[in-house]
Amino acid sequence: MTLLKADDITVAQGGTPILHPVSLHLEPGEPLVILGETGSGKSLLAQAIMGTLPRDLAARGRVVLGDHLLDAARPEGFRPLWGRQIAVLPQEPWLSLDPLMRAGRQVTEAHHLVRGLGTQDARAQAATDLDRLGLAHADTRYPHELSGGMAQRVAIAAARAGGAGIVIADEPTKGLDAARRDEVADLLLAELARGGGLLVITHDLALARRIGGRMIVLRAGRVVETGPTAAVMAVPTQAYTRDLIAADPENWPARSRRPAGAPVLTATRLAAGRGGVRLFSDLSFDLSAGRILGVTGPSGCGKSTLGDVVLGLAPPAAGRVNRSAGLAPTAFQKLYQDPVAAFPRHRTLGRTLADVAHRHGQPRDRIDTLLPRLGLNPVLLTRTPGGVSGGELQRLALLRLLLVRPRFIFADEPTSRLDPITQKQVIDLLRDTAAAEGCAIMLVSHDPELVARTADHVLSLAPAKTGGDLSGQAVKRAGGLG
Description:
With 482 residues, the protein is α/β, with parallel strands linked by helices.
């Protein structure tokens, strides 16, 4: 029996189509992968099927969900089915988690109120869920105390807790390292093995391969290619699909090293922790103008904390950071892992960017120059942050940062929401910024191939061999980061 059938789903804004007719079906035990570049309409398709589109967007088409026949133009009909028959794993965990509720309680509440478990059983099941995702220690933490990858896993546990037979996973592994990515994929597939339905929306080629099943490739709101996932990935028939696969970081050329400029910052024997847990210690490195330092390590190992310490946003537990004299505080900038938390929600993106350009003495046409370099449509500037995709917002965050003309950038997972083609565009722009403007960059990524082909040097943060301590592997200053 087909679990879900969607016929001729379209989405329009003000009468202008942005998702052209898409039809799909979901069968018990067979996953469906929707693959495509950022802004291709993947998330819009999921929102139309769930009845959760923003108010300024209109859907048409028919959705058959079990015994329910639903009109995509009437989203109110979907609400009684949320959580119980169909659930979505959200792309932005910061928007789905209650900032005033601890992680364990959020999962417990879903088991209790949606699935209907008793209080004690709900607590026990929530603890089991978090433990399976490597989050047993995060039970009492608030969302702001979690790394981006940890917050994503809590959101996954909460979304699954209602017992829905069909799960739509919208970029469920962005921000996660390879090991955690595979764990989440295996968890989703384990639920599928019990006869459920799974629709995965992603630009992550490795995740698509691991999920398997069938695939639909989208581009600019249109279906480009369909077929078994393994066949599409191995022998794509369309040029766009071939380009998407070829843009994977493992196929990039290595970055040519350039002469180093003057030192921008020096870190000496840094140590830091969160929640009473030491994340790293005895880290020493220096970074010069024009150089890129890659920072890698598993989720929760302290990569974002290191950035906060380097930028002076958090004090170190030990050690010191010396920044180049004569540079204004605004010369040191952070590109946030979760840009949705960094933009005013109720102002248009164009107004926010114009204000930043004016504040830093940049001409308005610099925005117009950067938009095409980041693959962004100017129409996005008329929208609020909630009206663009996560990948588009991440690139807009980079655009906003470049308006400041920084001398140092801590780029915290700047491409975690981007498809391979757009990811390469963004990394190329960061490379050009380092080379042309002498900007020093610390680039955080879970992707070792991306870091290896982008950075001049690499700093690895890894779990310690004993206890619960996490200690960074220091890059030797003799190695010449400067």
